[in-house]
Amino acid sequence: MSWIVLHFIGIISYAATGAFVALEARFSFIGVFALGFITAFGGGLIRNVIIGIPATELWEQSTILTVFITLMIIVLIPLKWIDHWRRWGMFFDSIGLASFALQGAMLASEVYSNNLGVMILAALFTGVGGGVMRDVIAGRKPLALKEEIHAILTILCALSIWLGWSSPLALTLIVVIVVTIRLSAIHYNWRLPLPCHYEENSFTNSEVKSISKLKLDKSNES
What we know:
Elements: H1 2-24, H2 29-51, H3 61-76, H4 85-111, H5 116-137, H6 143-146, H7 149-162, H8 168-188, H9 195-221
Helix pairs in contact: 1-2, 1-3, 1-4, 1-5, 2-3, 2-4, 2-5, 4-5, 4-7, 4-8, 5-7, 7-8
């Protein structure tokens, strides 16, 4: 039951994000449906390839119907409401990230007898695969490649399932925690500091100082 609930939460959330990105980019009716389906099924397709499950198992009638109804509702909403995508888009994307990552880890745990390495890979690609495809097709820089928090949160989801936290209450709590951390990271611009970032910042600061000094010299000469 828990897997089914996570499955439909992830499908609906990611289908919605795909549709909103398509509408924001002014895609056609076909483009909205294409991007919605790609976002909803892309991560699961990569996951199934990784853990050796036939891709055809993704094409359940109830799942396809759920995505179709979700996209149809979004297509029929007034165009002016699309501006609210910027406010709610990250929220739905975070829900999809959490639910898909947990779902991928749970499925990998069943197939590979709680193998942590495979669970992490399944959680990672299930959680971010569809979003990366969505952003690439929409001509945007993939969020998963700009924000380290994506990978960290999918690993945390895999670790949670590996530790046996699979009850409905535990899964709900994990989703809430992941969404809260993700939205906080976006709001406060949390980044994982790397040596190259320090060098880049140092170089930028030196450039700024040189430019300021040059402007000051010119002003003194005049």
